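DATA SHEET
Item: assembly model
Revision: 1
Owner: S.N.
Input lines:
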Amino acid sequence: MSNRLTEFQAYRKRMNDRIGEIDHLGVKRFMNLDTAAYEDGALPARQKEMLGLVASMVLRCNDCIDYHILQCVQAGWEDQELFEAFNVALVVGGSIIIPHLRHAVETLDMTRQSKDSDGK
Amino acid sequence: MSNRLTEFQAYRKRMNDRIGEIDHLGVKRFMNLDTAAYEDGALPARQKEMLGLVASMVLRCNDCIDYHILQCVQAGWEDQELFEAFNVALVVGGSIIIPHLRHAVETLDMTRQSKDSDGK
Amino acid sequence: MSNRLTEFQAYRKRMNDRIGEIDHLGVKRFMNLDTAAYEDGALPARQKEMLGLVASMVLRCNDCIDYHILQCVQAGWEDQELFEAFNVALVVGGSIIIPHLRHAVETLDMTRQSKDSDGK
Amino acid sequence: MSNRLTEFQAYRKRMNDRIGEIDHLGVKRFMNLDTAAYEDGALPARQKEMLGLVASMVLRCNDCIDYHILQCVQAGWEDQELFEAFNVALVVGGSIIIPHLRHAVETLDMTRQSKDSDGK
Amino acid sequence: MSNRLTEFQAYRKRMNDRIGEIDHLGVKRFMNLDTAAYEDGALPARQKEMLGLVASMVLRCNDCIDYHILQCVQAGWEDQELFEAFNVALVVGGSIIIPHLRHAVETLDMTRQSKDSDGK
Amino acid sequence: MSNRLTEFQAYRKRMNDRIGEIDHLGVKRFMNLDTAAYEDGALPARQKEMLGLVASMVLRCNDCIDYHILQCVQAGWEDQELFEAFNVALVVGGSIIIPHLRHAVETLDMTRQSKDSDGK
């Protein structure tokens, strides 16, 4: 996997571990609630990941976008389907989303390339 | 249908017509683009409506929430599925979403009641 | 208490009860987490209410502002202290906060008047 | 002038007066700074009002939109010019702006009608 | 031109080209709509660029700020005029805009220095 | 002090000085107002710094978070108290705050480590 994404994942893991050490009950419960929100239920997990992705795009959070793209790819969403989700985010959120669209497309490309090279 | 929703729909129609009269090419094209974003494509229309609903909730726009709930109900989404979408929006957006969750649940109830009474 | 605030509190209670009926585990846990975030801990409850108030003002949510002002008054904060919190929110959030400052001052006045008339 | 706008202006005046009574130095200075930001300088006042209008639209504050439309009309901006500003706000901010575009167009129409009837 | 801006422009071009390759009709139309929003019309292009700049500042998007500053400088806006626009954004958006004001001033300085050295 | 924070402080000082040179009366007054908002008054300065920190977290501004954490540590707030403030921000603002929580915890750790090594 490319540098930007591996760095993000290492930083994310390191700081999430550090947040765990803080041992604040409210924060820990929030983290669990966040994980649980994307598990299979009345809606399948993969659908919820796409909801999380669009929410992250319109709220313009690149780290959140990266996380949900990685999850969406793992959940089997195809590029054409993800582009449709990107388009909904773009229309809802406007041109202020464009820099995050660039970021999202780059992340998606990096993720596909990494999977290709992993597969060899 | 209940008063709040019928009033919203009448106001929405009246003002959208008025915006059409303004005849600004950019605005008209944006309106068309907005409609097109929720049509069947690589993702089915009903899925895009749910993406639009979650985007509207995290961006905290009650009129947009009402519009997408009406579309989601028409597209056949069940309450349990919509509650899951509400939950994703709540976890992503935090307690600041709660007033909009109240609004969304009230709108959903109104929509179901209206459909029940229409069916009689 | 004045009409606007009593109506808000009645609506809030009615819809929170309705949200409870929905019985979505994630949503219920979030509601509990939200309540717990303002309880005495390393910081006293009254301080957290003021943090919640300023967060609500900069995020521009009138219902949240009303809720936290009621809590802050009950927790014993004086007007001069609350005005200081309003000022921090105004400086951080800019003139876009002014309509919410008007709302907050009106709510605070209503709350004080209601307490005065209750005390007679 | 129509009811919605006269009510807004009366409420705005009443609460601004009340905020003045509070006599918080920081808040008073902010209010003065806000007024000064739209006075003639390196840019003419009318241009700054239009900047304030677009900022209010993308930040989705109806009271702020109403205030700046009233100022823009008084400053002599024509409808076609204001529609161009609305369009920039719509493209930058996305479909989440549409309910505020409806509000802005309605406010502009109310303002023009009021000026017409005043002129008779 | 300085490194930060040339890098941004190269990245922006590369990713916009990549987004073009994706060939999503909705996304392509949005991109065209975005370009068209800043062309001469009832308002001159240079005025619209300034509207886009203020919208970008209050929405706190550094890439958008950089893009519109480059356009504004090319459109002939003077520093004193741009500082006025920065000030409107600062007053509307509050102290949360200050980091973006720093970024904007740095970008403007870089752009002027680059033009000076190009002119030699 | 660690690199990221010293770099931020140097950049912040350099650009604030540059903004001072611009000599725009409105901007200068805003900067003064911002400083004054955190001075002792009806609320002590340390309390206002914590209000500023939570406002910065829910508005998701890393530079503002860093600034207020440095001020809060200097004002004598303990880690457990700051974690409570982080938790209020997390619950109000939702999972979109998590990347900023990571940043805040890292900044706090850096600040403590720097103070430890300064003290030797």
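QC remark: The mean pLDDT of chain C is 95.
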